[in-house]
Amino acid sequence: MACYLTTAKHMALYWSFGTVLLLLAITAPLALAFGFGAAAAARSRFLPLRWFGQIYIAIVRGVPDIAFFLFFVIALDQAFEYIRHKVKCPDWDQPIRQGSDFVVCAAAKLPMGNAAQWVHETYGFFLAVLTFAIVFGAFAANVLFGAMRAVPRAQMETAEAYGMTPRQIFRRILVPQMWVYALPGLSNLWMVLIKSTPLLFLLGVEDIVYWARELGGSKTPRFTDYPHGDWRMWYFLALLVFYLCFTRVSEVVLERLMVRLTHGQATLGGEAQRKVAA
Amino acid sequence: MKKILLGTAALTLSATMAFAQDGSVVRLGTEGAYPPYNFINDSGEVDGFERELGDELCARAELTCEWVTNEWDSIIPNLVSGNYDAIIAGMSITDERDEVIDFTSNYTQPDPSSYLGIDGAEPDFEGGILAAQAGTIQASHIASSGATLVEFATPDESVAAVRNGEADAVLADKAYLLPIAEEAADLAIVGEDVLIGGGIGLGVRESDTELKDKFSVAIDAMKADGSLNALIEKWLPGSATF
Amino acid sequence: MSCWETLTDYGLRSIGIGERLLPRSDFTLCQQVVLIGSGMIWNVYFGLVALVTGFVLATAVALGKASGQTVTRKLSEWFIFLFRGSPLFIQFFFAYFAFQSLKSVSSVFDPFSAAWLGALIVLFLNTAAYSGEIFYGALRSVPKGDAEAADAYGLSGWPRFRRIIWPTMLRLAWPAYTNEAIFLFHATTLVYFSGFPAWQQKGDALYYASYFADKTFNPFVPYPILAGYFILLTLVILSCFGLINRRLNRHLPQEQRLRVKFRPNLIR
What we know:
heterotrimer; A: 10 helices; about 0% strand; C: globular
């Protein structure tokens, strides 16, 4: 039993938990940055920029995330290679699309054709992070957009009265104050992000679902030292427990964070805290 | 799409020949879930008939090869998009696929497909419920027959469907089903073999004729000196040889 | 073959009416649009039925969580935690597994392993848990004055709930509930994608989209078509829920009304 649980394949499963956590750790701030950018764009006074922000938010949220995941990685990959191709090989005379083939010059390949395997993996991981960030960035943008509108109007007017420029108001008044309004939505988004990681295998990352399916499938003795029947149920049960624990821990942490953030704020929550303390 | 880049499974092969041309690496894409053709072994590496065959072909063609696994559904889009250079995944040569990609010479004879069912049962192949992996030639075959088709994402699930009574039988490559039928007391090959598909070959991009020729030459050489037959007998006992 | 013929052949293919064989070669854009649209029937079916049935259970769960009885409260809390805390993907997997094993117990359970019922039950429980949490939150924010006014009118028990508490709860929960509905419809794409097998090539929109992606080896046409359909569906849901929202808020002065904002409050 101990031998079975420590085969290289199981080690890969354990590692993939790390992969998932790493992806979450990178994606969350990146999506937040995307969301912040898009929310700022959607509020912009410059019309095309505003449209861009609003259309991005509307389209990405209107589409199921699986539909995105199913073709976005290839699309991103081809887009990057296309741009590099244009830059690096301007005198390339063959068409890029030959029938169904997508052919770029060797120098434009991402990663380079002869790169080490870990480079390919890192690149695949990077594409997955980017796809997640684009999808969840739109959701974050929506939360932040709402939060920016929730900041009391009087605060901005006061700033205007002090003679601040719109840019100064945005940086010094709006952004610092919006977080408390954004936190409930963002913490919800975090939970959603956690729960969408089982779809990671669609993005070409070998995640826990991939390995659970691979390890749990029935094995005949000819191809393994540890033949067994269909054990996917047990592996998925382990995943279920992992997710339940992870969301539970997140819930508790986020609740504490919210308590701390509302401290001293002029909101209902802050008022309630003051009363309890008094 | 589902580009699965396998850390542990991928393994750079130092080709025995010293000069792999200008250090470029040929990436071989496989599914890793279709024993005995290809599967992930206990140490997490690609293994099976095609692993041995691919390694041998690369050595003969003096190429440095690397193995990657990819979900079956998106194995062709990722090839044409350039994420790997050849598919070696038990892929039968069909006209539909040939329109989009090119195949090397076949490295197995047209492998019969067969039905796996509950031992002793006699499923109705014309009107019964038959399972297959989605997107395979077997699925197309059942869809155009009178039977009811049930599709599953992986070959493993399609066999499980027979076990739990969801389907009367599953249609798949005989070489895949035989070891299962031998090991499992309750399952057996039922009915007659079906001949669909035209042998298995490596899939390469249509623009990549150079690579295709290299592999074809190596395959033909292996056919000529009998080493391919030896591999087939080792991994696919009972299959036709060249 | 003209596009009209394609429509009559494949328009209802996803529910088994029309041409038996799916197109195999010479795929046209029209075929892709028609078949993926035909698959949307299932997405709408799953979403709509789960939403309506889930609504009832969600109300019960919300009341259960707010109830003073320890057993009822704990049960509701665990139900919500289990379904909100785990990915839907894994819930589908377990449901299929469980229904398979129940099948050997009694043939009563036969239809449960088919998507139309089995997957529906999962979606029903899932949306009930999510909406239950939303309703519970709304229930706690029902103004104290409303309840006191009901008491003053001598209302109690069922009439008090039905006529005072429930409408206010709905009104408060509606913006978040709208989002839940949208994400429920999005989640229906997971039905045939994981867990439940497609019979006779009758599947949902994503099933046909991946069929075409698989046959044409080009993911860049079918998935954007699917995306287009879902954007349309999202707009329809938003306007329906907006209408109901106006009705729920019709007694309030303009500026106090809660606007339905499409916010990702609770998704899976």
